[in-house]
Write a structure and sequence with these properties.
Blueprint: H1 6-19, H2 29-40, H3 45-64, H4 71-83, H5 92-105, H6 108-119, H7 126-140, H8 146-154, H9 161-178, H10 180-189, H11 191-200, H12 215-223, H13 228-242, H14 246-255, H15 257-271, H16 278-297, H17 300-303, H18 306-322, H19 327-342, H20 346-359, H21 364-379, H22 388-401, H23 409-425, H24 429-437, H25 446-469, H26 475-488, H27 495-500, H28 502-518, H29 523-534, H30 544-562, H31 565-568
InterPro entries: ARM-like, ARM-type_fold, XMAP215
GO molecular function, one term: microtubule plus end polymerase
Amino acid sequence: MFNNDFKKKIHACDVIKGMISAENFVESVEVIFKWVFIEVNGNNPQVGKAVLELVLNIVMFVKEKSLFITETEAEILVPTLCEKLSGSSVYKSIAVKLLHEICYVHPSEKCYSLIICGLNSKSCCKSECLAVFCEIYLEHQGPMNTKDITALCKYNKVPDNLTRTLVLKLLSLVYKGMGQKAKDVIMQNNPKLFETISQNFSVQELPVLSMQKSFIDHVVENLNCDDINVKLDALECIDRKIIQNFEQYETEFIRFAFELAEAICKTSRAIYSYPFLGVERKFILFFLSVVTNIFKITNLLRTVDEKCIQNFYEEFIYRASEIENDQEHQNEITRVLISLIEHTDVNKSISCLLNIMIINKGEKHQLQIASKCVLKITRVLSEFSPRPDKIISLIHDFNNRELVDIYNPSIRVVRSLLLELVFIVGDEEIWKYYSLALHGHPQVDEYIKNWINDIIKINYPIIKIFKNLSNPMLHDEALQDFISYMKEHRNENLAHVYKRFPDVAVKLQDDLARKAQSSKESKKDISSFVFEMENPWMRNDDSQDIKEICSKISMELQNTVKGQQFRYK
Protein backbone atom coordinates (compact mmCIF):
# COMPACT_ATOMS: atom_id res chain seq x y z
CA MET A 1 0.00 0.00 0.00
CA PHE A 2 2.82 2.40 0.78
CA ASN A 3 5.24 1.27 -1.94
CA ASN A 4 6.65 3.93 -4.26
CA ASP A 5 5.69 1.78 -7.27
CA PHE A 6 2.17 2.85 -8.32
CA LYS A 7 1.53 -0.59 -9.87
CA LYS A 8 1.93 -2.23 -6.48
CA LYS A 9 -0.51 0.25 -4.96
CA ILE A 10 -3.09 -0.63 -7.60
CA HIS A 11 -2.42 -4.32 -6.96
CA ALA A 12 -2.98 -3.70 -3.23
CA CYS A 13 -6.45 -2.34 -4.09
CA ASP A 14 -7.25 -5.56 -5.96
CA VAL A 15 -6.05 -7.66 -3.02
CA ILE A 16 -8.14 -5.69 -0.54
CA LYS A 17 -11.23 -6.05 -2.76
CA GLY A 18 -10.86 -9.81 -2.42
CA MET A 19 -10.82 -9.47 1.38
CA ILE A 20 -13.94 -7.32 1.75
CA SER A 21 -16.24 -10.21 2.63
CA ALA A 22 -13.78 -11.61 5.21
CA GLU A 23 -14.76 -11.72 8.87
CA ASN A 24 -13.83 -8.60 10.86
CA PHE A 25 -12.85 -6.72 7.67
CA VAL A 26 -15.00 -3.75 8.71
CA GLU A 27 -12.65 -3.14 11.65
CA SER A 28 -9.94 -2.12 9.15
CA VAL A 29 -12.10 0.26 7.10
CA GLU A 30 -11.02 3.40 8.97
CA VAL A 31 -7.34 2.67 8.27
CA ILE A 32 -8.10 1.99 4.59
CA PHE A 33 -10.05 5.24 4.28
CA LYS A 34 -7.11 7.17 5.74
CA TRP A 35 -4.87 5.57 3.13
CA VAL A 36 -7.41 6.49 0.44
CA PHE A 37 -7.31 10.11 1.63
CA ILE A 38 -3.51 10.14 1.12
CA GLU A 39 -3.63 8.56 -2.33
CA VAL A 40 -6.56 10.59 -3.69
CA ASN A 41 -4.66 13.76 -2.80
CA GLY A 42 -1.47 12.37 -4.33
CA ASN A 43 0.01 12.96 -7.78
CA ASN A 44 -1.01 9.76 -9.55
CA PRO A 45 -4.61 9.80 -10.92
CA GLN A 46 -4.45 6.08 -11.76
CA VAL A 47 -3.87 5.21 -8.10
CA GLY A 48 -6.47 7.76 -7.00
CA LYS A 49 -9.10 6.25 -9.25
CA ALA A 50 -8.21 2.71 -8.11
CA VAL A 51 -8.57 3.56 -4.42
CA LEU A 52 -11.94 5.30 -4.99
CA GLU A 53 -13.19 2.23 -6.83
CA LEU A 54 -12.06 0.21 -3.80
CA VAL A 55 -14.04 2.53 -1.51
CA LEU A 56 -17.12 2.13 -3.71
CA ASN A 57 -16.80 -1.67 -3.38
CA ILE A 58 -16.54 -1.35 0.41
CA VAL A 59 -19.52 1.01 0.67
CA MET A 60 -21.68 -1.25 -1.52
CA PHE A 61 -20.75 -4.25 0.63
CA VAL A 62 -21.60 -2.31 3.81
CA LYS A 63 -24.93 -1.30 2.26
CA GLU A 64 -25.70 -4.86 1.15
CA LYS A 65 -25.06 -6.23 4.67
CA SER A 66 -27.16 -3.45 6.27
CA LEU A 67 -24.13 -2.20 8.17
CA PHE A 68 -22.95 1.38 8.68
CA ILE A 69 -19.76 3.34 8.40
CA THR A 70 -18.65 5.17 11.53
CA GLU A 71 -18.64 8.93 12.03
CA THR A 72 -14.85 9.03 11.77
CA GLU A 73 -14.89 7.10 8.48
CA ALA A 74 -17.51 9.45 7.04
CA GLU A 75 -15.57 12.51 8.19
CA ILE A 76 -12.50 11.26 6.33
CA LEU A 77 -14.35 10.45 3.12
CA VAL A 78 -17.20 12.89 2.41
CA PRO A 79 -15.31 16.25 2.45
CA THR A 80 -12.55 14.68 0.32
CA LEU A 81 -15.11 13.53 -2.27
CA CYS A 82 -16.62 17.02 -2.41
CA GLU A 83 -13.22 18.39 -3.38
CA LYS A 84 -13.07 15.96 -6.32
CA LEU A 85 -16.28 17.16 -8.02
CA SER A 86 -14.59 19.65 -10.31
CA GLY A 87 -15.62 19.30 -13.97
CA SER A 88 -12.02 18.63 -14.98
CA SER A 89 -11.45 16.02 -12.26
CA VAL A 90 -10.90 12.43 -13.40
CA TYR A 91 -12.60 11.36 -10.17
CA LYS A 92 -15.88 13.23 -10.68
CA SER A 93 -18.18 10.41 -11.82
CA ILE A 94 -17.10 7.95 -9.13
CA ALA A 95 -17.12 10.71 -6.47
CA VAL A 96 -20.76 11.56 -7.34
CA LYS A 97 -21.81 7.92 -7.09
CA LEU A 98 -20.00 7.49 -3.77
CA LEU A 99 -21.65 10.55 -2.23
CA HIS A 100 -25.07 9.17 -3.17
CA GLU A 101 -24.30 5.72 -1.74
CA ILE A 102 -22.72 6.96 1.51
CA CYS A 103 -26.07 8.47 2.51
CA TYR A 104 -27.41 4.89 2.67
CA VAL A 105 -24.74 3.75 5.14
CA HIS A 106 -24.56 6.87 7.30
CA PRO A 107 -27.40 9.10 8.61
CA SER A 108 -28.39 11.58 5.87
CA GLU A 109 -28.48 14.55 8.26
CA LYS A 110 -24.86 13.86 9.23
CA CYS A 111 -23.92 13.48 5.55
CA TYR A 112 -25.45 16.88 4.76
CA SER A 113 -23.25 18.47 7.45
CA LEU A 114 -20.14 16.80 6.03
CA ILE A 115 -21.00 17.89 2.47
CA ILE A 116 -21.24 21.49 3.68
CA CYS A 117 -17.90 20.99 5.43
CA GLY A 118 -16.47 19.96 2.05
CA LEU A 119 -18.26 22.87 0.37
CA ASN A 120 -16.38 25.27 2.66
CA SER A 121 -13.04 23.93 1.45
CA LYS A 122 -11.04 26.35 -0.74
CA SER A 123 -10.31 23.59 -3.27
CA CYS A 124 -13.97 22.66 -3.70
CA CYS A 125 -15.85 23.74 -6.84
CA LYS A 126 -18.94 25.32 -5.24
CA SER A 127 -21.32 25.05 -8.16
CA GLU A 128 -20.49 21.40 -8.91
CA CYS A 129 -20.80 20.45 -5.24
CA LEU A 130 -24.15 22.26 -4.83
CA ALA A 131 -25.52 20.61 -7.97
CA VAL A 132 -24.71 17.16 -6.58
CA PHE A 133 -26.04 18.24 -3.16
CA CYS A 134 -29.42 19.06 -4.76
CA GLU A 135 -29.54 15.58 -6.33
CA ILE A 136 -28.67 13.90 -3.03
CA TYR A 137 -31.27 15.88 -1.10
CA LEU A 138 -33.93 14.99 -3.65
CA GLU A 139 -33.02 11.32 -3.28
CA HIS A 140 -32.76 11.11 0.51
CA GLN A 141 -34.72 14.14 1.79
CA GLY A 142 -35.01 14.13 5.59
CA PRO A 143 -34.25 16.98 8.02
CA MET A 144 -31.26 19.28 7.81
CA ASN A 145 -29.46 20.77 10.80
CA THR A 146 -30.30 24.44 11.42
CA LYS A 147 -26.57 25.29 11.46
CA ASP A 148 -26.25 23.80 7.97
CA ILE A 149 -29.20 25.83 6.68
CA THR A 150 -27.54 28.94 8.12
CA ALA A 151 -24.27 28.03 6.35
CA LEU A 152 -26.09 27.65 3.03
CA CYS A 153 -27.74 31.07 3.43
CA LYS A 154 -24.29 32.68 3.42
CA TYR A 155 -23.57 31.35 -0.07
CA ASN A 156 -26.30 33.60 -1.45
CA LYS A 157 -23.79 36.48 -1.22
CA VAL A 158 -21.06 34.92 -3.40
CA PRO A 159 -20.35 36.65 -6.74
CA ASP A 160 -20.85 33.53 -8.92
CA ASN A 161 -24.37 33.59 -10.38
CA LEU A 162 -24.63 29.80 -10.86
CA THR A 163 -23.67 29.17 -7.24
CA ARG A 164 -26.34 31.60 -5.99
CA THR A 165 -28.96 29.95 -8.20
CA LEU A 166 -28.12 26.46 -6.92
CA VAL A 167 -28.19 27.67 -3.29
CA LEU A 168 -31.66 29.09 -3.88
CA LYS A 169 -32.80 25.80 -5.40
CA LEU A 170 -31.35 23.72 -2.56
CA LEU A 171 -32.86 25.96 0.13
CA SER A 172 -36.19 25.78 -1.67
CA LEU A 173 -36.04 21.98 -1.54
CA VAL A 174 -35.15 22.09 2.14
CA TYR A 175 -38.02 24.51 2.81
CA LYS A 176 -40.47 22.30 0.96
CA GLY A 177 -39.29 19.24 2.89
CA MET A 178 -39.04 20.80 6.36
CA GLY A 179 -41.68 23.53 6.18
CA GLN A 180 -41.92 26.20 8.87
CA LYS A 181 -38.74 25.13 10.67
CA ALA A 182 -36.59 25.82 7.58
CA LYS A 183 -38.47 29.04 6.84
CA ASP A 184 -37.77 30.36 10.35
CA VAL A 185 -34.03 29.76 9.99
CA ILE A 186 -33.87 31.38 6.53
CA MET A 187 -35.92 34.39 7.69
CA GLN A 188 -33.69 34.80 10.72
CA ASN A 189 -30.55 34.91 8.57
CA ASN A 190 -31.81 36.77 5.51
CA PRO A 191 -35.50 37.75 5.10
CA LYS A 192 -34.91 38.94 1.53
CA LEU A 193 -33.49 35.54 0.62
CA PHE A 194 -36.78 33.85 1.51
CA GLU A 195 -38.68 36.40 -0.58
CA THR A 196 -36.38 35.56 -3.50
CA ILE A 197 -37.05 31.85 -2.99
CA SER A 198 -40.80 32.48 -3.04
CA GLN A 199 -40.56 34.62 -6.21
CA ASN A 200 -38.07 32.58 -8.26
CA PHE A 201 -39.23 29.05 -7.39
CA SER A 202 -42.94 28.55 -7.53
CA VAL A 203 -44.47 25.33 -6.25
CA GLN A 204 -44.98 24.08 -9.82
CA GLU A 205 -41.28 24.46 -10.65
CA LEU A 206 -40.04 22.58 -7.60
CA PRO A 207 -39.61 18.79 -7.75
CA VAL A 208 -42.29 17.03 -5.77
CA LEU A 209 -41.06 15.90 -2.35
CA SER A 210 -42.89 13.37 -0.25
CA MET A 211 -44.76 15.42 2.36
CA GLN A 212 -46.22 12.34 4.04
CA LYS A 213 -44.40 11.45 7.24
CA SER A 214 -42.48 8.22 7.16
CA PHE A 215 -43.54 5.46 9.54
CA ILE A 216 -40.58 5.78 11.92
CA ASP A 217 -40.74 9.58 11.77
CA HIS A 218 -44.35 9.28 12.94
CA VAL A 219 -43.29 6.93 15.76
CA VAL A 220 -40.58 9.37 16.91
CA GLU A 221 -43.09 12.22 16.88
CA ASN A 222 -45.46 10.18 19.07
CA LEU A 223 -42.65 9.34 21.51
CA ASN A 224 -42.01 13.06 21.91
CA CYS A 225 -45.69 13.77 22.56
CA ASP A 226 -46.65 14.89 26.07
CA ASP A 227 -49.63 12.49 26.22
CA ILE A 228 -48.55 9.35 28.09
CA ASN A 229 -51.06 7.19 26.15
CA VAL A 230 -49.61 8.33 22.81
CA LYS A 231 -46.14 7.40 24.09
CA LEU A 232 -47.44 3.95 25.02
CA ASP A 233 -48.91 3.46 21.53
CA ALA A 234 -45.56 4.41 19.99
CA LEU A 235 -43.69 1.90 22.18
CA GLU A 236 -46.15 -0.87 21.32
CA CYS A 237 -45.69 -0.01 17.64
CA ILE A 238 -41.89 -0.31 17.99
CA ASP A 239 -42.19 -3.59 19.91
CA ARG A 240 -44.76 -5.33 17.70
CA LYS A 241 -44.06 -3.91 14.28
CA ILE A 242 -40.56 -2.47 13.87
CA ILE A 243 -38.55 -4.92 15.98
CA GLN A 244 -40.38 -8.01 14.73
CA ASN A 245 -40.08 -6.88 11.08
CA PHE A 246 -36.79 -5.03 11.33
CA GLU A 247 -35.56 -5.92 7.83
CA GLN A 248 -38.52 -4.07 6.35
CA TYR A 249 -37.79 -0.85 8.28
CA GLU A 250 -34.00 -0.99 8.54
CA THR A 251 -33.12 1.67 5.93
CA GLU A 252 -35.69 4.08 7.33
CA PHE A 253 -34.52 3.28 10.85
CA ILE A 254 -30.96 4.33 9.98
CA ARG A 255 -32.18 7.69 8.71
CA PHE A 256 -33.95 8.46 11.98
CA ALA A 257 -31.49 6.82 14.40
CA PHE A 258 -30.40 10.08 16.05
CA GLU A 259 -33.97 11.34 16.40
CA LEU A 260 -35.05 8.02 17.92
CA ALA A 261 -32.13 8.06 20.38
CA GLU A 262 -33.09 11.54 21.58
CA ALA A 263 -36.75 10.49 21.82
CA ILE A 264 -35.85 7.48 24.01
CA CYS A 265 -34.02 9.70 26.51
CA LYS A 266 -36.82 12.26 26.44
CA THR A 267 -39.41 9.52 27.00
CA SER A 268 -37.43 8.13 29.92
CA ARG A 269 -37.28 11.54 31.60
CA ALA A 270 -41.01 12.02 31.03
CA ILE A 271 -42.28 8.69 32.31
CA TYR A 272 -40.16 8.81 35.45
CA SER A 273 -42.05 11.93 36.44
CA TYR A 274 -45.08 9.68 36.97
CA PRO A 275 -45.60 7.73 40.23
CA PHE A 276 -44.36 4.12 40.33
CA LEU A 277 -47.87 2.77 40.95
CA GLY A 278 -50.50 0.83 39.00
CA VAL A 279 -50.52 1.27 35.23
CA GLU A 280 -47.68 3.79 35.31
CA ARG A 281 -45.27 1.28 36.87
CA LYS A 282 -46.20 -1.36 34.29
CA PHE A 283 -45.63 1.21 31.58
CA ILE A 284 -42.15 1.97 32.92
CA LEU A 285 -41.24 -1.74 32.91
CA PHE A 286 -42.62 -2.11 29.39
CA PHE A 287 -40.61 0.92 28.24
CA LEU A 288 -37.39 -0.55 29.66
CA SER A 289 -38.11 -3.89 27.98
CA VAL A 290 -38.63 -2.19 24.59
CA VAL A 291 -35.41 -0.17 25.00
CA THR A 292 -33.48 -3.39 25.72
CA ASN A 293 -34.85 -4.94 22.51
CA ILE A 294 -34.04 -1.82 20.48
CA PHE A 295 -30.43 -2.00 21.66
CA LYS A 296 -30.22 -5.76 20.95
CA ILE A 297 -31.99 -6.14 17.62
CA THR A 298 -31.31 -2.88 15.81
CA ASN A 299 -27.97 -1.25 15.06
CA LEU A 300 -28.95 1.96 16.83
CA LEU A 301 -25.90 1.99 19.12
CA ARG A 302 -23.53 1.49 16.18
CA THR A 303 -25.16 4.33 14.24
CA VAL A 304 -25.33 7.17 16.76
CA ASP A 305 -22.35 9.18 17.99
CA GLU A 306 -20.58 9.13 21.36
CA LYS A 307 -22.68 12.00 22.72
CA CYS A 308 -25.86 9.93 22.27
CA ILE A 309 -24.18 6.93 23.93
CA GLN A 310 -23.22 9.07 26.92
CA ASN A 311 -26.79 10.37 27.17
CA PHE A 312 -28.03 6.77 27.35
CA TYR A 313 -25.54 5.81 30.07
CA GLU A 314 -26.25 8.95 32.11
CA GLU A 315 -30.02 8.48 31.88
CA PHE A 316 -30.21 4.81 32.84
CA ILE A 317 -27.44 4.93 35.47
CA TYR A 318 -29.30 7.82 37.10
CA ARG A 319 -32.59 5.87 37.03
CA ALA A 320 -30.89 2.77 38.45
CA SER A 321 -29.50 4.81 41.34
CA GLU A 322 -33.01 5.96 42.32
CA ILE A 323 -34.62 2.53 42.61
CA GLU A 324 -35.03 0.92 46.02
CA ASN A 325 -37.00 -2.17 47.14
CA ASP A 326 -38.23 -3.04 43.64
CA GLN A 327 -36.34 -6.08 42.36
CA GLU A 328 -38.27 -6.40 39.11
CA HIS A 329 -37.58 -2.77 38.25
CA GLN A 330 -33.88 -3.19 39.12
CA ASN A 331 -33.66 -6.26 36.89
CA GLU A 332 -35.15 -4.42 33.90
CA ILE A 333 -32.74 -1.48 34.19
CA THR A 334 -29.84 -3.91 34.63
CA ARG A 335 -30.87 -5.60 31.37
CA VAL A 336 -30.91 -2.21 29.62
CA LEU A 337 -27.39 -1.39 30.86
CA ILE A 338 -26.04 -4.84 29.93
CA SER A 339 -27.56 -4.54 26.45
CA LEU A 340 -26.04 -1.05 26.16
CA ILE A 341 -22.60 -2.42 27.09
CA GLU A 342 -22.80 -5.45 24.78
CA HIS A 343 -23.94 -3.57 21.66
CA THR A 344 -21.87 -0.38 21.91
CA ASP A 345 -18.31 0.06 20.68
CA VAL A 346 -16.22 -0.85 23.74
CA ASN A 347 -13.93 2.18 23.40
CA LYS A 348 -16.92 4.56 23.34
CA SER A 349 -18.44 2.83 26.36
CA ILE A 350 -15.26 3.19 28.41
CA SER A 351 -14.93 6.85 27.44
CA CYS A 352 -18.54 7.62 28.43
CA LEU A 353 -18.39 5.70 31.71
CA LEU A 354 -15.13 7.28 32.87
CA ASN A 355 -16.65 10.70 32.17
CA ILE A 356 -19.71 9.76 34.21
CA MET A 357 -17.50 8.56 37.08
CA ILE A 358 -15.81 11.98 37.14
CA ILE A 359 -19.09 13.91 36.90
CA ASN A 360 -20.78 11.85 39.63
CA LYS A 361 -17.86 11.39 42.04
CA GLY A 362 -19.99 13.02 44.75
CA GLU A 363 -23.01 10.81 44.01
CA LYS A 364 -22.30 7.51 45.72
CA HIS A 365 -24.97 5.34 44.06
CA GLN A 366 -24.38 6.61 40.52
CA LEU A 367 -20.61 6.24 40.95
CA GLN A 368 -21.05 2.64 42.14
CA ILE A 369 -23.25 1.72 39.15
CA ALA A 370 -20.89 3.36 36.64
CA SER A 371 -17.96 1.53 38.28
CA LYS A 372 -19.81 -1.79 38.04
CA CYS A 373 -20.39 -1.15 34.33
CA VAL A 374 -16.65 -0.56 33.80
CA LEU A 375 -15.85 -3.75 35.72
CA LYS A 376 -18.38 -5.64 33.59
CA ILE A 377 -16.59 -4.40 30.46
CA THR A 378 -13.22 -5.25 32.02
CA ARG A 379 -14.22 -8.88 32.57
CA VAL A 380 -15.16 -9.36 28.90
CA LEU A 381 -12.74 -6.88 27.32
CA SER A 382 -10.84 -9.59 25.43
CA GLU A 383 -14.07 -10.60 23.63
CA PHE A 384 -14.40 -7.17 22.01
CA SER A 385 -11.95 -5.15 19.92
CA PRO A 386 -10.38 -2.69 22.36
CA ARG A 387 -7.95 -0.04 21.18
CA PRO A 388 -5.21 -0.13 23.84
CA ASP A 389 -3.81 3.30 22.92
CA LYS A 390 -7.29 4.85 23.10
CA ILE A 391 -8.02 3.27 26.49
CA ILE A 392 -4.64 4.33 27.95
CA SER A 393 -5.29 7.86 26.71
CA LEU A 394 -8.72 7.81 28.42
CA ILE A 395 -7.13 6.60 31.67
CA HIS A 396 -4.56 9.41 31.40
CA ASP A 397 -7.34 12.00 31.00
CA PHE A 398 -9.17 10.40 33.93
CA ASN A 399 -6.06 10.68 36.13
CA ASN A 400 -5.70 14.35 35.24
CA ARG A 401 -9.27 15.06 36.38
CA GLU A 402 -9.48 12.73 39.41
CA LEU A 403 -7.58 12.55 42.68
CA VAL A 404 -5.18 9.62 42.26
CA ASP A 405 -5.38 7.75 45.54
CA ILE A 406 -4.90 4.01 46.07
CA TYR A 407 -7.93 4.00 48.39
CA ASN A 408 -10.16 5.79 45.89
CA PRO A 409 -12.65 3.17 44.54
CA SER A 410 -12.68 4.84 41.11
CA ILE A 411 -8.91 4.54 40.82
CA ARG A 412 -9.08 0.84 41.74
CA VAL A 413 -11.60 0.31 38.93
CA VAL A 414 -9.34 2.07 36.44
CA ARG A 415 -6.34 0.01 37.58
CA SER A 416 -8.37 -3.18 37.03
CA LEU A 417 -9.09 -1.99 33.49
CA LEU A 418 -5.39 -1.36 32.87
CA LEU A 419 -4.53 -4.77 34.39
CA GLU A 420 -6.84 -6.52 31.91
CA LEU A 421 -5.36 -4.52 29.05
CA VAL A 422 -1.84 -5.69 29.95
CA PHE A 423 -3.06 -9.30 30.05
CA ILE A 424 -4.60 -8.92 26.57
CA VAL A 425 -1.69 -7.29 24.71
CA GLY A 426 1.28 -8.64 26.71
CA ASP A 427 4.04 -7.15 28.82
CA GLU A 428 6.10 -5.91 25.85
CA GLU A 429 3.38 -4.60 23.52
CA ILE A 430 1.76 -2.54 26.29
CA TRP A 431 4.70 -0.10 26.27
CA LYS A 432 4.26 0.52 22.54
CA TYR A 433 0.62 1.43 23.10
CA TYR A 434 1.62 3.53 26.12
CA SER A 435 4.04 5.56 23.96
CA LEU A 436 1.46 5.90 21.20
CA ALA A 437 -1.29 7.00 23.60
CA LEU A 438 0.77 9.67 25.33
CA HIS A 439 2.62 10.91 22.25
CA GLY A 440 2.42 14.70 22.23
CA HIS A 441 1.41 14.99 25.88
CA PRO A 442 3.52 17.58 27.74
CA GLN A 443 4.56 15.17 30.48
CA VAL A 444 4.74 11.45 31.16
CA ASP A 445 1.91 9.94 33.22
CA GLU A 446 3.91 8.51 36.13
CA TYR A 447 0.81 6.85 37.62
CA ILE A 448 0.13 4.75 34.53
CA LYS A 449 3.82 4.00 34.12
CA ASN A 450 4.12 2.79 37.72
CA TRP A 451 0.89 0.80 37.49
CA ILE A 452 2.09 -1.02 34.38
CA ASN A 453 5.43 -1.78 36.04
CA ASP A 454 3.63 -3.17 39.10
CA ILE A 455 1.31 -5.29 36.95
CA ILE A 456 4.21 -6.75 34.98
CA LYS A 457 6.22 -7.40 38.13
CA ILE A 458 3.45 -8.79 40.37
CA ASN A 459 0.51 -10.02 38.26
CA TYR A 460 1.85 -10.90 34.86
CA PRO A 461 4.21 -13.82 35.74
CA ILE A 462 1.41 -16.10 36.98
CA ILE A 463 -0.76 -15.16 33.98
CA LYS A 464 2.08 -16.15 31.69
CA ILE A 465 2.41 -19.49 33.51
CA PHE A 466 -1.30 -20.22 33.05
CA LYS A 467 -1.13 -19.28 29.38
CA ASN A 468 1.74 -21.74 28.97
CA LEU A 469 -0.22 -24.42 30.88
CA SER A 470 -2.87 -24.22 28.17
CA ASN A 471 -0.19 -24.74 25.49
CA PRO A 472 0.65 -28.47 25.05
CA MET A 473 4.18 -27.62 23.87
CA LEU A 474 4.99 -25.63 27.02
CA HIS A 475 2.77 -27.46 29.52
CA ASP A 476 5.36 -29.52 31.46
CA GLU A 477 7.78 -26.65 31.97
CA ALA A 478 4.89 -24.36 32.97
CA LEU A 479 3.69 -26.90 35.55
CA GLN A 480 7.08 -26.88 37.25
CA ASP A 481 7.09 -23.07 37.09
CA PHE A 482 3.68 -23.07 38.79
CA ILE A 483 4.91 -25.22 41.67
CA SER A 484 7.95 -23.00 42.16
CA TYR A 485 5.83 -19.86 41.94
CA MET A 486 3.35 -21.06 44.57
CA LYS A 487 6.09 -21.95 47.04
CA GLU A 488 7.49 -18.44 46.68
CA HIS A 489 4.15 -16.56 46.70
CA ARG A 490 2.20 -18.50 49.30
CA ASN A 491 0.05 -15.53 50.35
CA GLU A 492 -1.11 -14.54 46.88
CA ASN A 493 -4.78 -14.95 45.99
CA LEU A 494 -5.15 -16.45 42.50
CA ALA A 495 -8.93 -16.19 42.19
CA HIS A 496 -8.64 -13.70 39.30
CA VAL A 497 -6.34 -16.12 37.44
CA TYR A 498 -8.69 -19.09 37.91
CA LYS A 499 -11.51 -17.00 36.49
CA ARG A 500 -9.45 -16.16 33.41
CA PHE A 501 -8.38 -19.79 32.87
CA PRO A 502 -11.21 -21.94 34.32
CA ASP A 503 -10.44 -25.04 32.23
CA VAL A 504 -6.74 -24.94 33.12
CA ALA A 505 -7.58 -24.45 36.80
CA VAL A 506 -10.00 -27.37 36.89
CA LYS A 507 -7.40 -29.71 35.34
CA LEU A 508 -4.62 -28.46 37.56
CA GLN A 509 -5.01 -31.16 40.24
CA ASP A 510 -4.83 -33.99 37.68
CA ASP A 511 -1.77 -32.37 36.11
CA LEU A 512 -0.04 -32.22 39.50
CA ALA A 513 -0.96 -35.83 40.27
CA ARG A 514 0.62 -36.99 37.01
CA LYS A 515 3.65 -34.85 37.78
CA ALA A 516 3.98 -36.57 41.17
CA GLN A 517 4.00 -40.00 39.52
CA SER A 518 6.61 -39.09 36.91
CA SER A 519 9.00 -37.10 39.12
CA LYS A 520 10.73 -39.01 41.92
CA GLU A 521 12.70 -35.97 43.00
CA SER A 522 9.67 -33.88 43.94
CA LYS A 523 7.27 -36.74 44.62
CA LYS A 524 6.91 -36.08 48.34
CA ASP A 525 6.22 -32.35 48.02
CA ILE A 526 3.90 -32.70 45.03
CA SER A 527 1.99 -35.61 46.58
CA SER A 528 1.45 -33.48 49.66
CA PHE A 529 0.53 -30.58 47.37
CA VAL A 530 -2.15 -32.63 45.57
CA PHE A 531 -3.35 -34.31 48.76
CA GLU A 532 -3.94 -30.98 50.47
CA MET A 533 -5.64 -29.53 47.39
CA GLU A 534 -8.12 -32.39 47.40
CA ASN A 535 -8.43 -32.55 51.20
CA PRO A 536 -7.84 -29.10 52.66
CA TRP A 537 -9.17 -30.19 56.08
CA MET A 538 -6.33 -32.72 56.50
CA ARG A 539 -2.98 -31.83 58.07
CA ASN A 540 0.51 -32.89 57.10
CA ASP A 541 2.94 -32.00 59.88
CA ASP A 542 5.95 -33.10 57.82
CA SER A 543 5.51 -30.33 55.21
CA GLN A 544 3.98 -27.30 56.87
CA ASP A 545 4.91 -24.90 54.03
CA ILE A 546 3.41 -27.07 51.29
CA LYS A 547 0.35 -27.75 53.45
CA GLU A 548 -0.48 -24.05 53.79
CA ILE A 549 -0.04 -23.34 50.10
CA CYS A 550 -2.05 -26.35 48.99
CA SER A 551 -4.87 -25.77 51.42
CA LYS A 552 -5.19 -22.20 50.26
CA ILE A 553 -5.18 -23.13 46.56
CA SER A 554 -7.67 -25.92 47.13
CA MET A 555 -10.17 -23.58 48.75
CA GLU A 556 -9.68 -20.97 46.04
CA LEU A 557 -10.27 -23.60 43.35
CA GLN A 558 -13.41 -24.82 45.09
CA ASN A 559 -14.81 -21.34 45.64
CA THR A 560 -13.76 -19.84 42.33
CA VAL A 561 -13.92 -22.56 39.71
CA LYS A 562 -15.23 -25.96 40.77
CA GLY A 563 -18.65 -24.80 41.85
CA GLN A 564 -19.01 -22.37 38.93
CA GLN A 565 -17.14 -23.99 36.06
CA PHE A 566 -20.31 -24.60 34.04
CA ARG A 567 -21.30 -20.95 34.32
CA TYR A 568 -17.87 -19.85 33.14
CA LYS A 569 -17.95 -22.24 30.23
